[in-house]
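Case study 2.
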Amino acid sequence: MLDTLSSLFSGLTFRWADVIDILLVGYILYLVIIFIRETRAVQLVKGLLLLVVVTYLSELFHLHTLNYILKGVLTLGAVALIIVFQPELRRALERIGRGKLFGGKGRGENSAIESSLGAIVRSAQYFAKNRIGALIVFERETALSDIIETGVGIDAHITEELLGTIFYVGTPLHDGAVVIRGLKIEAAGCVLPLTGDITLNKELGTRHRAAIGLSEISDALILVVSEETGTISIAMNGKITRKLSPKTVEKTLRELYFEPLKKDEGAVRTVIQKVSDRISAGRNGKNGADEGVDAEELKEVEELKKK
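Prediction:
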């Protein structure tokens, strides 16, 4: 086995230009993946990859008719991709022109996470008490760039004052949704797709139907405060849970949104630290329950997590 491997690589020469070439190609692929993840087109790409795999398997197992059809679809797919990805390609070219090709999701420190979470929960309490309608979307794995583009760009830290101003009755943006990406308010006044479910409770207004509609096509977490009743609800995975207490809202947001942000940040830091250790030492680096929440509130959170 070793002799075979040695014979395969014996005639190869490795230059610095090859290293640079591999790094550049890897970086470009990384940027493409990041760009695709910033749009809901990632689902389309997954379907396309599945189509390529099925085409290969049909050729491997001599399924001639199926293979002929799939090859025709893939040929037309090259043109179809340009049409389907036209908005994304346009945005990419605009970013290149602005010198900002790809923007990642921000990951904050623990203090910033606690500050943001506290601001959201206190704002929800205030809105509920004063019967102020609110619709807040938390972007998770499924990117919501197309939703963000329907609103007004904000790109600001999450504060009670800013949320209160946005949803204050009479302001131009109060009827739309706020989209939170990472630890920032990315946009306000955004338009969400309404659910087509006709079996929903007639008491649910436009905000609730919009929240359910977005949750049906993405993994976003959507917080809704009713203008009529002052109740707080959370929608996810096409379902909505109503009449939540502030403590339940806090625990749900912490577990389903803010804790994953903290874990992602920790994972990135670990990788960076390992790379730094390897470079500096020339070897592999070695790294060597919420209070105030009762049983009923914990049960509500668990039900949300199962949906």
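Residues 14-98 form one domain.
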